[in-house]
Structures are given as structure tokens and as C-alpha cells.
Amino acid sequence: MKAMLLSEYKKLAITEMPTPPIADDEVLVRVRACGICGSDIHGYDGSTGRRIPPLVMGHEAAGEIEHVGAAVKEFRAGDRVTFDSTVSCGRCEYCKAGQINLCDNRMVLGVSCGDYRRHGAFAEYVAVPERILYKLPANLPFERAALIEAVSVAVHAVSLKVPAPSDQVLVVGCGMIGLLVIQVLRAKGCTNVTVVDVDAGRMALAMTLGAAHALNGKDPDTPAAIRKLTGDQGADVAFEVVGSTETIMTAIRGVRKGGTVVLIGNLKPKVDLPLQEVVSRQLTLLGSCASSGEYPECIDLLASGAVDVRPLISLTAPLEDGPGLFERLHRGGEGLMKVVLQP
Ligand SMILES: [Zn+2]
Ligand SMILES: [Zn+2]
Question: What would the mean pLDDT of 182-186 be, rounded to a whole number?
């Protein structure tokens, strides 16, 4: 099969590779669309240590089943599917409790980190266990379905602290996931969503996708503006979707006493925490990791149009364009949001 192989850091090429064999409980998926994730870009240059070459990356994908293993029950060749990026074991205590994102034996497709190597979906074919597969409705194109993984990150984060429709909500960061969090909040009936970003284009997009107010994080008046917009108290809930000291500070200072900050972004491994503000104002900080079984809800949100990923897809391109696009995204991306490759 044709695959895009990371043979060494910053070295991607389209290569012939053996089609992956499948176990009895796995299916072989003919990949039709696979999104380039920010984590792939950070892995491509070796900065995260989670894409140790040689590796086929790619964990945001959709396609058709080519054939199924002997023990597969619910799926057949020809089914249109997407799959979780997390390969959970299905046996550990976390899996049994439905917390598959916390699986003790968790592997991520298209990741190689020293503990394991699992080739991903920047290829014609990928092998996937049945337990992480989901059927797609006929009216949902593969390119949009490839973004379900990102939608699931937003849906999971909001599920950890669902604001009441009348609550004041703050979203710090209007990148891909932030813009999805805004749409998921809107789908849950939240009308008082204030967003903070530093990019005028993304702030404008946030407004069209459901935010009521957009503030520039670089503006020194922004903390005061957040207070004013949230009844002088601060927001009830904040979703932090960047992961740096500055933005976490904005989220923590933007919520009211007793408020909750859901932490999704993790750009930096460590940040400064205003400990006394968190303790004396009795804030709840919640970490949110990936997703745990929210795919059916995400598929419904996309199929119904409640969440629209079309404005987030900057470009779809054949797999052959992948190496050049990785280079371009690594240089800063020139305003590209989601790029979807079609193997
Ligand atoms: Zn990703
Ligand atoms: Zn497990």
C-alpha cells in the first residue's frame, strides 16, 4: 500500500509499505480522509518525543471497511466508519468502567513513544480493533467525519462540566478545539459565551459559530471587560483550550468565586498557577483528556448540523501533498486551520 512514512524527524515521504495484517478482532479500513493534528506537527520535528520514527502518523480518520477479522461481529466490508484515536484494551478497570480515555494499556493510533509503536492512517489502509469503530451515516462525507475525533475532545470537555443555559461561560482560545467547544456549548443551549483569543480572524469565526462576545487577550482591558460581561462576578465556567501560563491565568481570573475551570489545552508541560487565588476563591480545576465514548453523540451533532466543521477545514488534498503541507504547517501554517489528506 501507499503510505506517508516519517523515516526520520522532519523527513516525510510517500512510500510503498506492506498492507497491515489484522487480528481476529480487527478490521482493515480503506482510509478516505485523515486530518493533520497539531500534535502530529509537534511530533514531526521530535519536540514531543511521541512520534519516534519510523512511523506512519494520523489518528483523525474515516473510511470504508475493506475486510473484517474472523471474530468481528457488528461490522462488514463496505461499512463507512470512523474510529477513536485511542486504542483502549477493553479489559482494564478503567475500560470496564467506561473511562476508555484512561485505559491502563492505552495506545494512540499513529503514535510511537518508546512504550509502543502503532501505525496510523496517513496511508491507504489502517488496522483497527472493532471495539473502537463507529458507523457513519450515509450523508456525512469522509472529510467531515475525519474531524469527529476533534469534536469528541470538545464534547468530552463540556460533559465534565455542563453549564446551565443561563450560565456565563468563558472560552479561552479559539483554535480548532476552542471553536468546537463554542459550538457544543451552543448546541447545549448556552447563549452567554464570551471568548478570548489574539487572532482577529479566529475571534470573528467564534462569533459566527455561537459566541456572544469576543475579546482580545492582548488588550490590557480584557480582564475588566470579562468582569463587566459576566455581571461583575466572573463566569460560572471557563474552558481553557490553549495551555500556557497567560491563558490559564485569564481563565482562572475570569471565573467567579466557586467557579470551575476545565483545562483542555496542554501546550506547555508546566505553567505558573496562582495558587492562593484558586484556594481562597475555592475554584475547581478539572483536567479533560481526549474522549471516552462520546463518538455517537458527536456523529449526531455533525449529521444534524448542530456542529458544523466546514468552516474549520482550510484545505483537503491528496496524500501526495502531505509532506509539503507538513512543512508548511510546521513553518506556522499561514492561517491554515484543519488540513485533511485523502489517501
Ligand atoms: Zn489529534
Ligand atoms: Zn483498558
Answer: 98
* Ligand with minimal distance to 153 CA: 1
Taking only the tens place, the pLDDT of each residue in 222-234 is: 999 999 999 899 9
Residue 284 CA to ligand 2 center (angstroms) comes to 27
**CA 27 / ligand 2 centre spacing (Å):** 19
Q: Report the separation in Å between the CA atom of 91 and the middle of ligand 2, taken as the mean of its atom positions.
A: 5
Buried b (16+ CB within 10 A) or exposed e, 20-31: bebeebbbbbbb
Residue that is written with C-alpha cell 474552558 in the block: 239
Nearest alpha-carbon partner for 327 in 41, 48, 60: 41
pLDDT of amino acid 5: 98
Q: How many Å lie between the centroid of ligand 1 and the Cα of residue 39?
A: 6
Percent pLDDT > 70 in the chain is 100
Residue reference for cell 501505525: 119
Question: Counting Cβ atoms within 10 Å, is residue 312 exposed (0-12), middle (13-18) or buried (19+)?
Answer: buried
CA of 293 to the centre of ligand 2 (A): 13
Q: Where are the beta strands (DSSP E) in the chain?
A: 2-8, 11-16, 26-36, 60-68, 80-83, 86-87, 107-108, 111-112, 117-118, 125-129, 133-135, 168-172, 192-197, 213-216, 235-240, 255-263, 284-287, 313-318, 338-342
Ligand closest to 40 (CA) is 1
CA of 326 to the centre of ligand 1 (A): 14
Q: What is the pTM of this model?
A: 0.95
Residue whose cell numbers read 465534565: 160
Cα 102 to ligand 2 centroid, rounded to whole Å: 7
Pairing of strands 255-263, 235-240: parallel
Which residues fall inside 5 Å of ion ligand 1, going by CB?
A: 37, 39
Q: Please determine, for residue 268, whether its predicted confidence score (pLDDT) is greater than 90.
A: no
Question: Looking at the DSSP assignment, which residues form a beta bridge with residue 62?
Answer: 33, 82
> What average pLDDT does the segment 247-270 reach?
95
pLDDT at residue 168 tops 90: yes
Q: Which ligand is nearest to the CA of 97?
A: 2
